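Weekly structure sync, notes
Attendees: PL (lead), two postdocs, one rotation student
Agenda item 3: pending single-chain targets
PL asked that the sequence for the first pending target be pasted directly into the notes so everyone works from the same version. It is reproduced below exactly as submitted, 276 residues in total.
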Amino acid sequence: MAPRSRLEAASTRSVAQRRAERRARKQVAQAQRVGATRRRRIHPLAILSWRAVSLVIVIGLSIVLYLFLTSDAFFVQSVAIGGEKYLSREEVFRFSDVAQRHIFWIDPVEVERRLEQVPNIADATVYVGWPPDMVQILVVEREPALIWEQSVRVWVDVNGIVMKQREDRPDLLRIVVPNATEPLDVGARIPQSIIDGALYLKRRYSNIDVLLYDSLKGLGYRDGRGWTVWFGDGAEMDVKLLNYNAIVEAIVAQVQPGEIVMSDPDRPYYTVLWRK
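Predicted structure, written out during the meeting:
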């Protein structure tokens, strides 16, 4: 009986020890959880203060955005313009089409493209910034090279681009289209050879003030000796002038020509008014 009693006593002690150990482990774990909870705990006022700051920032930015989008100060009422010569500043402003637009919606490249569609404007540069000079426009205008008279007078630049005549320029060569019924549209383009040929004649004979133009015979000139010479489209003008002078020298003593047509320098012909 004694050995069995000792075994039962040992078993009882081991169970008690295990229970004690489990209670100890639970207490340690609970203590750790409480400590961690205490470490993670943030004061409610801190959370409230950060949320309040964020709310104030959002409200402030919303007010600024509202004022930016609605204030008259950011809508274009006028622009700074430079480089104009024949156009007025009011015309450049109108062509730009930026009046009453918000600067946030103005695309400088688009405005430049719109201005360069105006025949008188060769190049445009647009800057967009902050008040007071929110929009600045710099233009380069085309210079007229001659006057084209077809029902109405228009300017034409060296590239053949037709522009509205802005002022009287008696120093420019004038090309007249006889019996024309329809005016030449602003923005149209005259063939480059016609422009080059006309300016070549003006350089060679500075006393020429007026040339003629016919859709079939091309450029023409009323010679002071009583006839009209036609030079075609203006190409090979130096060759045509040489042949023309040779023909005049050969026939002027015998006949009075009415027209001398040099459209094809290899096959010129002339009409005779009378023989001398």
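Discussion points:
- The chain has a mean pLDDT of 84.
- The chain has two domains: 75-141, 146-275.
Action: rotation student to compare against the earlier draft before next sync.
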